Amino acid sequence: MSSRDSRSASSRVGGTIPSGHPDAIFINGKFITADSAFGVAHAVAVRDGRFLAVGSTEEIRSLAAPSTTVVDLQGATVLPGLIDTHAHVERAGLLKNTVQLNDVSTVSQALARISEHAARTPKGRWIRGAQWHPISQLAEKRFLTRQELDRAAPHNPVCLPIGHFTLVNSEALALAGITRDTPDPDGGIIHRDKTSGEPNGTLEEAAEDLVHDLLPDWSDDERDEQLQYAMQYFNEFGLTSAISAAVDPATLRAHQRVRQRGQASLRISAMYAPTGGLNPSMTIDEWELFFSRIGVASDFGDDWLSYSGVKLQIDGGMTLRTAAMRDGYPDDPDYKGTIVIEPARFNALVATANRYGWRVGVHAVGDAAVDCVLDAYELADAERSIKGRRFIVIHGSLMRRDQMERARRLDVRVDAQTSFLWDKAAVVARFLGKETADRAFPMRTMIDVMGLDAVAQGTDYPINLLNPFINMYVMVTRKDKNGDVFGASERISREEAIRLYTSSAARYSFAEEKTGTIEPGKYADMTVISDDILGVPDEAIKDIVAIRTIVEGRTVFERKTAT
CA–CA distance from 285 to each of 249, 348, 349, 353, 358 (Å)? Predict the structure, then answer.
């Protein structure tokens, strides 16, 4: 037993063990506890869904009764249950109900997939797409045009969300009443042909709602089934908790139904979007009336389902050429990206939520966007202190050191998604230059300036892959899927990468006393993985998979054969 092993075992099992035998023990494993010592133990005992004791196999065996279930892990490595701090959970539930484009690599492949889907879809019924990213994944590096979608699906309206953009065909535009004379809505753009002025099928930000609002609602039964499927999909990646990134009222009701029936397998803390949009379709007076009447605030709920805060948005994205930047874009110094909401309105939305006890998390990618968020938080803090309440910069993709220092003074956290670099770093370099791509998601600097507890990691699934081990690989190596390095100086250690998915991540929803580490008294959330993440070569981190996912001592996923 190593010094780290023995230190961990003695500190966990030493002292008085609560009376009563465990329901189950897990032995012969390598348990990375992610506690303050980042210790390693070899067995755990579980009772009533919580860790009863953590230590050596011999010590834990001695606690078992004849009725205790014994699980021999045969040397497998175990992490605390992994937590994705920014994912659109419900979108995984649409995998069976939408056309899948996330694996196509050319325009022709995308159109063929849409055409195949249209051939088995009744005439006039909507064709919906799952999230994808044509700019990064297609060889042509462009969106599909309205005319191309017309040919692929001549008898159906088409709606293909990308994330801040939606691609639609002529029938969808007609149903929405969008013509060359339709004005851009506040906070959105109807993209148009430069010659004719006709809508070209690309809708940006608030303009997306002109079509999205026409999509027929899923039934309650459909939503519930989709949500259970989504949770199981997350479990397959070793995830036991998630911050759901923008939960509308209908989705929250589905979460409640699934929770009440005892069918949840993923802990959810929701960033609430009361009108469904990140720039809410309410006046300031209506926004205040909503919060004055809802009667709850952030962190209301239980350990399976709670409100984490309210979600807002200030800019677009690096990979969509809409991130709001202090400096102009390299190919057009006068263009500085997109601010999607008028600053005075944004400040009022933040201040109102804060006044009624709601934590705020804001989508902010570019450095100019981060300035806007911190300005709003500073104004809100002057009215009611936000310190200790963990207000959030969501993404913080191009955050600078001076902003990190300012965030630290305000006690604001950042929840980032380095997984963007896996397959989109080259797109960032294309739009903003290699130097900017190198400083994207500056985790080394964030940890050094703000402290490990003030940052965490998610994926923004389905915009990026959900796989946490690919995300950890990128954090540790700063390599994209082609092996190209972006920002080597921002590499972090494996321990730090693990903590960003466990002990640090739990702090997002004030759950650090309940989850995030393997310690007595905490929920028995664990992820058994295929390889020793502390011992394999760097290049092998991305190939690790979850082989068993355990929530409150209950196995919610088990891989038939490790791959």
Answer: 20, 10, 10, 12, 17
Taking only the tens place, the pLDDT of each residue in 35-73 is: 999 999 999 999 999 999 999 999 999 999 999 999 999
The pLDDT value given to residue 163:
77
* Residue 173, both tokens: 């535009």
For the four alpha carbons of 101, 107, 111 and 112, in that order, the dihedral sign comes to negative
Name the H helices within 19-92.
57-61
Domain hosting 356: range is 274-492
Reported as a single tens digit per residue, the pLDDT across 298-314 is: 999 999 999 999 999 99
Query: Is the same domain home to 551 and 447?
Result: no
Domain count, the chain: 3
Whether the predicted pLDDT of 250 surpasses 90: yes
The 10s digit of each residue's pLDDT in 2-39 is: 434 433 433 355 445 556 799 999 999 999 999 999 99
Q: In sequence order, what are the residues at sequence separation of 6 or more whose Cβ sits closer than 8 angstroms to the Cβ of residue 279?
A: 187, 205, 206, 312, 313, 340, 341
CA–CA gap between residue 396 and residue 427 (Å, rounded): 17
Same-domain status, 461 and 538: no
Residue at 508 is within a domain: no
Say if pTM beats, i.e. exceeds, 0.85.
yes
CATH of the domain at 304: 3.20.20.140
Tell me the C-alpha distance between 372 and 384, whole Å.
Answer: 18
The answer to whether position 89 is within a domain reads no
- Give which of 253, 222, 210 is closest to 94, Cα–Cα: 222
